[in-house]
């Protein structure tokens, strides 16, 4: 008889990490020791990416060099563009992105350089290139041409410019940047753990990231931000939220954007993202969307007392910014590439093959007749 089986590894501590600390008791999240709310209020996403990878915030000179490295690698390689063009529009954008990242890996002659410097360089490359992949995929779905990157713009302004062909107001750029910071890292979530499992076999960084993108796609994880918007579309308006929810709960549906494996009293990131959403509601004059958001949340609290997670405010925020619903989870990838790769480097620095045990419950030993 083996140890007690913990389905879904719930509550199991599998390793140390110095990248981030999720504390459900204090409802807090620290990146390398800094509260995420402080980072969201005072830093750019580029500064946070640097922090996650290097353990410290950059000096002005370090930030300038880092920004230069990111800005100079943003363009979509022609081979990657050609492969995206080959993919049908029936493909989910997460599958397009997974494929495009895989192609970048296959084109990199140094794919097998897993030194700390090699992996850091690959991480910056992916940070720089993923927005071009996501933005181009959004545009081609609308019959629009590629917009080239603009090296005079920061990460978020450039991302939005490449997607929509112009830089929106500061309110929108700031809300997008805050969402990137909040989505950047969250300890041993399913996709990060996937990346660490792949890394533990000594496979390369690109393989680990491609696997992580697959893990993030599911609606119990990153796919929930897209699913939240489908729920909003299904409900339609605030006055229908109560009846819709009662019906959904009676049919044992999981309500997307609510609940969390670690936080049981609310997701530490929600208040910050909700504030960003409120600025967007005002910017786009959409009190109807706020009313629906509030009605579903309040009814969920009254019926189940299950709190919203980060995907709940992020979904409608990305909708207001103008992204098609199926692009929401790729936006999560654009942020989480920082956390995934920080964990890949941490895993390699102190590696042990990840290989748990199982308790066999199939047929007793038996033999072929004759
Ligand atoms: C950025 C992120 O990845 S955050 C997560 C995003 N995912 C979602 O929003 C999907 C919806 N949420 C869920 O499915 C779950 O809350 C999860 C998967 C996130 C966490 O699940 P777990 O930790 O395994 O909790 P579990 O599923 O055991 O839930 C405990 C109880 O709460 C219920 N519950 C949890 N979340 C929900 C929900 N969203 N809707 C309805 N009921 C829920 C479960 O049905 C279960 O009830 P029971 O004890 O009567 O069976
Ligand atoms: O931590 C988790 O399980 C899921 C999550 O919120 C994240 O990855 O941001």
Name some characteristics of this structure:
2 domains; 370 residues; 16 helices; binds oxaloacetate ion; mainly alpha; three-stranded antiparallel beta sheet; 58% helix; globular; Cytochrome p450-Terp, domain 2; Citrate Synthase, domain 1
SSE layout and pairing:
Elements: E1 20-23, E2 28-31, E3 34-35, H1 36-42, H2 45-54, H3 60-71, H4 78-86, H5 93-107, H6 116-141, H7 155-164, H8 170-183, H9 190-200, H10 205-217, H11 224-235, H12 241-250, H13 270-284, H14 287-303, H15 311-321, H16 328-349
Antiparallel strand pairs: 1-2, 2-3
The protein binds acetyl coenzyme *A (ACO) and oxaloacetate ion (OAA).
The site of oxaloacetate ion (OAA) has 7 residues, from loops.
CATH superfamily of the largest domain: Citrate Synthase, domain 1
N→C terminal distance? 32 Å
CATH architecture descriptor name of the largest domain: Orthogonal Bundle
* Unreliable spans: none
Helix content: 55-70%
Family: Belongs to the citrate synthase family.
InterPro entries: 2-MeCitrate/Citrate_synth_II, Citrate_synth-like_lrg_a-sub, Citrate_synth-like_sm_a-sub, Citrate_synthase, Citrate_synthase_AS, Citrate_synthase_bac-typ, Citrate_synthase_sf
Catalytic activity: oxaloacetate + acetyl-CoA + H2O = citrate + CoA + H(+)
Keywords: Acyltransferase, Transferase, Tricarboxylic acid cycle
Please outline what is shown here.
With 370 residues, this protein is mostly helical. Helix content is 58%, strand content 3%.
Give your account of this protein's structure.
This protein has 370 residues and is mainly α. The protein has two domains: 20-219 and 332-349, Citrate Synthase, domain 1, CATH 1.10.580.10; 224-320, Orthogonal Bundle (Cytochrome p450-Terp, domain 2). The protein contains 16 helices and three strands. The protein has helices at residues 36-42, 45-54, 60-71, 78-86, 93-107, 116-141, 155-164, 170-183, 190-200, 205-217, 224-235, 241-250, 270-284, 287-303, 311-321, 328-349; strands spanning 20-23, 28-31, 34-35. Strands 1-2-3 form a three-stranded antiparallel β-sheet. Helix 7 (155-164) crosses helix 8, helix 11 crosses helix 15 and helix 13 (270-284) packs parallel to helix 15. The radius of gyration is 21 Å and the shape is globular. It starts with 19 loop residues before the first strand and ends in a 21-residue tail after the last helix. The mean pLDDT is 97. The structure holds acetyl coenzyme *A and oxaloacetate ion. Acetyl coenzyme *A (ACO) binds next to loops.
